[in-house]
Structures are given as structure tokens and as C-alpha cells.
Design goal:
Elements: E1 3-10, E2 13-20, E3 23-31, E4 40-49, E5 54-60, E6 63-68, E7 76-77, E8 93-100, E9 109-111, E10 115-117, E11 121-124, E12 132-133, H1 140-151, E13 159-162, H2 171-194, E14 200-202, H3 207-214, E15 222-225, H4 228-240, E16 248-251, H5 259-262, H6 265-272, E17 276-278, E18 284-289, E19 294-299, H7 310-332, E20 336-341, H8 348-362, E21 369-374, E22 379-384, H9 391-396
Parallel strand pairs: 1-15, 6-9, 12-13, 15-16, 19-20
Antiparallel strand pairs: 1-2, 2-3, 4-5, 4-8, 4-14, 5-6, 7-8, 8-9, 10-11, 11-13, 17-18, 18-19, 20-22, 21-22
Helix pairs in contact: 7-8
Amino acid sequence: MEQGLLITRRENRILVVRVESGKIVQMQAEPIAGALLGNVYVGKVRNIVKNINAAFVEFQKGQMGYLSLNTKETPIHTGNSNRQDERVLIGDEIIVQVEREAVKSKPPTLSGAIELPGCYVVLTTKKNIRNSVSKKIKDVKKREWLQSFIMKYSTEEYGFVARTNSEDCTEESLKAELMALSAQYAKIVQRGEHRVIFSELYTAPHAYLSQIRDSSQKKLQEIITDDDDLFEEISDYIHANRLADKMALSGWNPSDGKMDAVYDISRTIERAMRPKVWLKNGAYLVIQPTEALVAIDVNSGKAISKKKDVEKTYFNVNIEAAKEIARQLRLRNLSGMIVVDFIDMKNVANKEELMKILRQEVAKDSVQTTVVDMTALGLVELTRKKLRKPLYEQLQDKDA
């Protein structure tokens, strides 16, 4: 399998496993009941903290969320709030979307802007990205055509972002999705005007469906599940979104053994819970997530035994480590600030090559990941956008 998704039930969760060139590169565990990420609610502002310019909004009974007031996006006030201006005040009832899941002691992050992703475009009320085209689409004429086309369906309230998959979709499919997302947004606003607080106005698709939606249709070749109910849901989803001719869905054949064993899923999870990751050359990584950042240390281990050219050995260890670090960030879903302590090298050209390869590897990640720089002390800084909990929290979450 060059690139595919394995979808299975594991205890009280649904596990989505992404495989590339026969190797597991990403896993995501979601409660069977679904997660909060992407859901839209009518919330009530319970507190305003001026020194951090943020509001705390109760969007489910007893569930608070953090809403930054630093953005230019003004939440929609519902008809029950009787607000006459755009300010957010204690007691206001507003429409909010869950932008990031809760992580450790931090509550979910909310947004006053609404984003509704489709396979080809994203409807957004964020002013700074409306009516734009994915940077991964390089064809200038195609970019201009997409920009012009999505503008036809934009309004003063919202616009669209053309996703990478839009480069190869038909005009008919693109138009159908633009109209469907516009209708979905209108429904959310209309319902929000008349619903009481804590009402759920929009339920985001389950993670196993959103993974299909967000995957590159050029690369994702196969979806396999060993669960009959999930097979039916996935089949309905890909047919409803006109994806059946672009990716193959198949059930698991029990005569091939257990899917878990064939693809080494349980052992991969077990290894992803350990801090130490061995590399093929005898070196190893130590990965330590903390509250503030993720620290990754590259150790030479057995890689330098009886080696004369130490600089070359260090370079080779660092290159292999860079590739594995990029995979581990995806596999473990580690995010925020990441600091990597590579083995120190004296050769400037080797350092530049290391940074180049690291940037190439993290570019494969669907989650925005940026290699910032190498510090004077030789530490490499990265950032990875926070969306969902890290894998170890997903699997250990008692509420899942």
C-alpha cells in the first residue's frame, strides 16, 4: 500500500491509521461518540479576563472554552442576547466553534469565526484568508480560475479557500460543494438565532471521515476497515461526496489474519508510548513532552563504535534522526513548540543540509509544521499547529 487509511475499533475508540509505503506514519484515536473539534454551539460568556484579552465561554453544560478577543473576528450574537454592538460582554450568547481540543489543563479553544471544510474548499468567515487558493497549487492559470470561481459564491459574511484537491476536481463538483457549504452556513446562523444556550448547531464529521475528506485525492489510494458498520458509514460518505471513483474502499478479509497483526498496529502504539526510539544505525531519540514544549534529544548510542570519521558519522545519524523525528511528530501528534538537540557538527555545509532535509520531511505533514531555526547552541526549534490531543492523551483519556 503506497498510501492508505486503516480504520478499526479499539476498545471504546475508533482508530485511524495512515500508512505510507508500508509504514505507519500517523494514528488518531477518537471516542466512538465523536470529539468536539469543529462543532458549533450557542455559548454564554461567563467571564472576561482583560489582562489576556480573552473570554471564557460555557458552550456545553459545565464545559468552558477559551475565546481570544485579540482577533478581528466578531462572533455572531444570537437573538436572545439583545446586543446592539459587536463587543463581547459577560452574559452574551454567541455562536462559537471549537478550534482546538482541550490539552491537559487547558480548556478547548473556541473561535468566533466559522470554518466549514469540504473536500475541495473551506467556507470561512475569517477575513484574512477569504477567497484564497492553496499555495500547493502552482499552476498560475488554475489559481486565477479558482480565485475567480469561488468569488462568485462569496458574500459579505463569508468567503472560501480553495484546497489542494480543487486543482483536479470538475467544475460541477466544485460548484456543488460551494452551494452545499453555503446552505450549511445559512442553516447554522438561522438555527443559532432561535436556539437556547448549549445548543449544538453543527456536528463535525467523525475523525475517520474528516481524515478521508482532508487527504490528497492524488495520493490516498485505499481505505480498509475490518468493521461492517464503519464500512457502511464510510461507503455512504465517499459516495455522497463523489469520491468513490478516486479512492478504493474495501473490507478486511479475515483469511488474511487480523488487520492489527498484519499492519503491526498494537506494537506501533506500544512503541509510540515509549520515550526512546531506536534508529537503524544504532543511534536513538529520547522524546519528552512537557507542559511548555516537546524536547527531543538525539543520541549517537552504538553508531560511533569503531568509526574513524566521526563528523561523517554524526551527519548520517542526524539525517536519519531528522527523518524519524518528522514521522514521530505525526505518529504521536506532538505539537506546539518542539526543541531538538541534534548531535553537534562543526561542518557548516552539513548543518545546512540537515536543516534542508528536516524541512523537506516536515513538509509531508498535513498539519502545519515550521522549522524555525538552529540556535547558537545548536538546538533546532520547530512549531507544529495544535489541533487535537497528542496520541498518548487520546488513548489514555478516561472520558473517551
